[in-house]
Amino acid sequence: VEAVHLIADGKAPRIPQPTEGATYEGIQKKENAEISWDQPAAALHNWIRGHDKVPGAWTRIDGQVVTFYGSSLLDASVPTGQELVIKGASRPGLVTKNGLVVFGNDGKMVLVRNLQFEDGKMIPASKYFSADETTTLELTEEEKKMAEDIR
């Protein structure tokens, strides 16, 4: 009760909280989440996982920013896949049926499951080379009439 009265009267002591021992980290910004490729696979995995979902760990592929989501360490033989040149990486990544395999400077592997492009489009990493394929929707005469009625 005494503390409430001190606050109400504007006489409560104000003691600044010490920063020593504080564990709060400020909000991460996208520009600070770029992947540094000169690291072992475990560090790459932790960087990607630590920035998953916000702001998202990113790198440049074919001149555009690509954000990586859903990483895991891969402890197996090098899988077969289509090579993907990643800016700054010492070795090209591999687009496999399970996702994008990237390599740390220790030769070990990290599997990335999803990729997001600058335009916001997210795809499974395994579909990187088929992402540009588009299909056209063909409507039957009945569907065209229904679309016109709706319009």
UniProtKB/TrEMBL annotation:
Gene3D superfamilies on file: Formyl transferase, C-terminal domain
Ranges of residues in domain Formyl transferase C-terminal: 29-130
A family per Pfam: Formyl_trans_C
Stored CDD domains: FDH_Hydrolase_C (cd08703)
InterPro entries tied to this protein: Formyl_trans_C, Formyl_trans_C_sf, Formyl_transferase-like_C_sf
A GO MF term: catalytic activity
Official protein name in the record: AL1L2 dehydrogenase
Source species of the chain: Thinocorus orbignyianus
Gene behind the chain: Aldh1l2_0
